[in-house]
Amino acid sequence: MVFKFAQPWWLAAGATLTIACICLRYFWYKPTRYTYPLLHFITNNKLQASSWWTRFFYWIKILFFLFLIILLGKPQFVDNKSKINVEGIDIMLLLDMSGSMACVDDLADIRSRLTVAKKEALSFIDQRQNDAIGLVLFGRYALVRCPLTLDKTILKKIITELELGQPSEDMQSATMLSQGLITALRRLQQSKAKSKVIILLTDGTPSPGDLDPKDAVAIAQDLNVKIYTIGIGGKDGGYINDSIFGWRQVLSPINIQLLDYIAQST
Predict the structure, then answer these.
(1) Using CB atoms within 10 A of its CB, is residue 94 exposed (0-12), middle (13-18) or buried (19+)?
(2) pLDDT recorded at residue 195
């Protein structure tokens, strides 16, 4: 058990200020003195205020001020011998940010596919407190939104604030699923963890021009990365809310066959 201050610079600044104030009080400060005709009479009759109480409250203020300075330094005990059991798993969340994720699959529950995917991602993070988790987004292109980290607070904040059109409107105009997988795989390429995992959340319908999913699967097999797929969507497509015609169905069904192939192959 080691005692230390988390913010010693604040402690040093406060101590310096305190010493400066004390020096000012005793060496430079000159209080105003008043002379009264009845001063001798008051002194002889012991009518003056008690100087003991004055000194007492003065030092109480000094001690209180010193206590606040110590708190600014954030005193803490650190147990350097404590251990946290971890499983040694590095996990990349791969989240679909294409336009089809704006669809609603059940008019009785008008949450978009992206909203459902975000909820599942946040729930998963809460269950993996001791594993490093990162985040890759994909649409027309793929990007690493958060590298592998143990800071679940910042990761959950990033996911919570995600909206379609971020980081750009152009991103949601296509679904480059295989490119997203390869981007996540590259992040796990140098990982020394005993287990490496990708969690893919998508409606599983790549756009024309995407790489062959077999290439991404082959890379995952070479790197010994397991890919778990979570399909978000309905078999018959989804609905979008048109500002003129209201809810209308669009052809964006979930690609179960592709998601099964990716998961079973890895």
Answers:
(1) buried
(2) 92
